[in-house]
Specification:
single chain; 3 helices; 116 residues; three-stranded antiparallel beta sheet; alpha+beta; NE0471 N-terminal domain-like
């Protein structure tokens, strides 16, 4: 499994950038990280129990803390701070970001909800 070599918080552009020792590098918008939080609050406790996150366009990543040597705990300005983002999960998010983002937008539209 790949391990991070760089973690850069870009507050101005609201992005978290991670580089890994396998050569991969990803930039994650704060909103994307928030709506795909690995927490039970967002993902539920099983398939079909997810909670659609709405109105997260302006969310800001307030704090990043290491969780052991395997993950980061991200704290957002909307009070959400219960997800542990493992290196493996970051890699999954990075490799599937475009498709996951489009799926999120499609779910919002189907529910008649908004990012704003």
């Amino acid at each position: 499994m790949a391990n991070p070599t760089e973690i850069i918080l870009h507050k101005q552009t609201k992005m978290l950038e991670l580089a890994f020792d396998d050569g991969s590098r990803f930039k994650f918008p704060f909103e994307f990280l928030r709506v795909y939080s690995p927490s039970a609050e967002v993902r539920g406790h099983g398939p079909g129990q997810e909670t659609l996150q709405v109105g997260k366009h302006d969310v800001v990543l307030d704090n990043i803390e290491p969780a052991g040597s395997y993950a980061l705990k991200l704290a957002f300005n909307d009070g959400h701070d219960s997800g542990l983002y493992s290196w493996e999960y970051f890699l999954e998010l990075g490799k599937n970001q475009n498709g996951m983002w489009q799926a999120y937008l499609d779910k919002l539209e189907a529910a008649g909800e908004s990012r704003f």
